[in-house]
């Protein structure tokens, strides 16, 4: 393998890693504030993909508008799901398990809803931008550069929101001590719902950007949510910066790993890394060691 | 734990077992017997999962790994080494139990439910991906076929017993043996001192530790016993269906199905998973007419049960005949969860 | 100003408070003294809505507080400094303090109040950027009180404000309570130590096993036969 080809692989790893990071960050945000594992996260991703397919590929809406509308629609659906299920279960005993169970049900439901609406065919979405960037031997489609740029911009915005806005402070405060947050005036339920919707929106952005690269189908969420699990284990469950670092790390390790083996081993490398992490550092890179 | 059944309840159970055993002699509908065989296999699987999850408090989401390991181990060994499935089936159980120990070790270091869910699911995914990758041996998603069926034998007085696709009755009795055996084994374990130790673990890890109960040993035991049972069931499934793909025996769908069965029947009860298995397996078949919408209904059903019937169908049964004691058992909530919620 | 009448609280089937009645007048410092497990914290948590009362009435200036969610209490002028500080450990000192002004009614005067609390606790200004979780217990208590003051409360409640602090720090906190009160803010606090409770409050209540057994002016409580016999070993 030439050095250029290797470099291309690594860059592709970074680009895919940015998508893992978006997925993982959404999951981490939701876990961080509510302590729940959202098994329907992959289906919010899937819905994001189908909405872009519908708006952009079928209705020929401008891609920027299509991505924005798709993301907003997924966020709304997620908010509704949260209010109808998770929000109610959080008040009951045994919620750590029942929230997982209910989001599994939501996942099955949304998969089959998509199947009923759009069928099981793989639907392709055209590239948002055409053309290839070429520097010497090194070639990279502009679509992939766009993916990375959007992911970085979205994550930077999210980080800034968490760091500097009142809403961001409320999210962090609720995550760190829900009772103390309530006492100072943070409406925890509203924060939970909005955070759930935002987490789902991050998944929808990832799907919207990846839709032209991978085709869209009802089962597209499963591999991505499992990768997101790996990401949050690497980064530390509930850590937003951890998920971002974990996402890029996973993308790069996978890319380097498959150049050494073959692309079939991609998932083996990912899960092997996750299991190794759980043995050595179960609380992840950025997580706090819990008992 | 399970309160002992009232005499009426015991009589009802004896009657149900009798009906189950006599049924294939009087009802020769091959398709119906097939559905009952599947219900028994998935029912036993759910009982075994419920045992680790509801009783031992190890909320694993990767038990399908043991089903897949059992199925593929028994299928590959019997096919390639030409060893009788009668020998490879129990061996598959042991292999699954060993795999259970490997998974249980990291799980034991973790207490948070989401972490346990992700590790166990991750393990199952590794097994699935490896089976897909080594496709020279497993044929991957193309499907492994040519799996030998169980060898026939002759019972004096009854004549030749043959296992093949046309003849469901021998499979039916083998499935019933595995089903009743699994349920009996779980009941015995739950009532034993080990069972009491497991309840202690579930209700309070700290209390159990201070009582000097070795958590590691009991959790390992519970997990690997459950894995053994599921491995056996997987092996039976392989020699019954005679075609395996990684996604059919190792996909998350299978795990969700087992969780769905348990939730619908009633988590943390003995009869819940059994009722759930029959209702869901037969119910989904009955809805075949409405095509793809049946899976939509299945998803909605899981949501509705979690939200509105957290004790499952067993609770209804209890209302119909409270004196039988079927629904006796315990809610899944642990004091740990409550503490975190508070 | 604050009136609590006939308050009962149950945790599941276990009743922890019986028929609690107490008042806090405008500008008053009131102490609730009781041994460990007597239910002191539960009274404050019931007032702010973190635990639900099974019976009784809680009112502020005649307005009933039942049904007001905890997160809206800051808007009613009630603030609580939780037991063991309960700061947001991964946020900075400044962020913690400013979180105290989260309620919409407090936002307008945030800057002015920040200046005031930093004048009460000059150390907060020096440590603005430090993570709250890395401070000493006494410093954390100061951040917690500052956070409680940022909403501009008329009633500041403090759950065991002296717990686990060095005597020198305890003196500082007592001093601060006086200065807060001098601004016209009523204070209701809990404490296990008889002297700390009653010598620093205008009035006091003695709580035993979930029931109020004695009430009176602070210094008079110290002189009461029952307090002397049981708690001062005289």
**Biggest pleated sheet of chain B:** 2 strands, antiparallel
Radius of gyration of chain A, taken over Cα atoms and rounded to an integer in Å: 19 Å
Secondary-structure element sequence of chain B? HHHHHHEEEHHHHEHHHHHH
Sequence of strands across the biggest β-sheet of chain B: 1-4
- How large is the share of residues in beta strands of chain B? under 5%
Major β-sheet strand ordering of chain A: 1-2
Strand content of chain A: under 5%
Low-confidence stretches of chain B: 329-342
Query: In the residues of chain A, how many domains can be counted?
Result: 1
User: What is the helix content of chain B?
Assistant: over 70%
* H/I helix tally of chain B: 16
Topology order of chain A in helix (H) and strand (E) letters: HHHHEEHHHHHHH
Class from secondary-structure proportions of chain A? mainly alpha
Determine the N-to-C terminus distance of chain A.
46 Å
Share of residues in helices of chain A: over 70%
Shape of chain A: globular
Secondary structure category of chain B = mainly alpha
Give the overall average pLDDT of chain A: 91
Oligomer: heterotrimer
Task: Put the structure in a nutshell.
The complex is a heterotrimer of chains A (291), B (342) and C (234). By secondary structure, chain A is mainly α.
Question: Can you characterise this structure?
Answer:
The complex is a heterotrimer of chains A (291), B (342) and C (234). Chain A is 74% helix and 3% strand. Chain A has 291 residues and is mostly helical. Chain A has one domain (3-280): ABC transporter involved in vitamin B12 uptake, BtuC. A two-stranded antiparallel sheet of chain A has the order 1-2. The radius of gyration of chain A is 19 Å and the shape is globular. The model of chain A has no long low-confidence stretch (mean pLDDT 91). With 342 residues, chain B is mostly helical. Chain B contains 16 helices and 4 strands. Chain B has helices at residues 7-26, 30-55, 64-80, 85-108, 113-133, 135-138, 169-191, 193-203, 205-210, 215-241, 246-250, 252-265, 271-286, 293-308, 313-320, 335-341; strands at 144-145, 153-155, 159-161, 243-244. In chain B, the strands form 2 sheets. Chain B has a two-stranded antiparallel ribbon with strand order 1-4. In chain B, strands 2-3 form a two-stranded antiparallel ribbon. Chain C has one domain: P-loop containing nucleotide triphosphate hydrolases (Rossmann fold, 3-Layer(aba) Sandwich), CATH 3.40.50. Chain C has a 6-stranded mixed beta sheet with strand order 6-7-8-3-9-10, sandwiched between helices. Classes of the chains: A mainly alpha (291), B mainly alpha (342), C alpha/beta (234). The interface between A and B is large, with 52 and 49 residues.
